[in-house]
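REVIEWER CHECKLIST
Item 1: Sequence provided? yes
Item 2: Single chain? yes
Item 3: Sequence as submitted:
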Amino acid sequence: MRAILLTLLLASLLSVQAAETAAPAESTDWRAELKARLARKVTLEIHEADAESALAILESETKLELVVDPRIARLPDASRAFTFRAADEPLYDVLVRLVAEAGLALDRLDGKPFVTHPTLPRGEKLGFFDVRDLAPGDSREKSAAELLLAADRAYSCCPHLLENEKAYDRKARDLVRELRERLAPESWKDAKASAEIVRGMLVVSQRGEVIAQVRPYLEGLRQGAAAPDLDWKKSKRR
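Item 4: Structure as written out by the authors:
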């Protein structure tokens, strides 16, 4: 009887250990699938390009469909240029190496390769929404005024440019502020929750039920109707 109990206990421990070791394999399945899908060999040469430009060249030259996190444009070293070469290498290896050399991270989003940065917040889900019609831009993407400032440190020649920059900033800030106030305000206290506008794209890192409400909310703004507040407690129960 004791031998039987010991055998059953050992089998139980082994099954638990197998389950624990199997879990990481499930999280890497998408990489194996991506590697098999991107097995064709490519040759690529990129000279003195920043990360965004290098990724755009990779997409253009290889017809690879990537999702690139627009927030990387605001990283301190976003404009750092580097040279990259690949000769007759599998496309998957080229992608992984290019992302690493750019100081970025490879993940997946909606079944597609997703390039982001480890320091950028990412909640349960990440959503990208085109809001160029609601907030045409912001001062971080507009360079005309910055170029003038660098040239003569004055806007006296073209004061309207500075006013436009301020207006863009205000629209972007107001849109984000109102979004956070109307859609599950308590949920934004989560350290991984964030919303910002980069190059006309609203980037929202949040829980899935909040992300699902963003598009209807924006459509309500476009139609001039106030979107209903999202009851965070009810959404959590669902």
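Item 5: Key structural point noted by reviewer: Confidence is low (pLDDT under 50) at residues 2-26, 139-165, 232-238.
Item 6: Recommendation: ____
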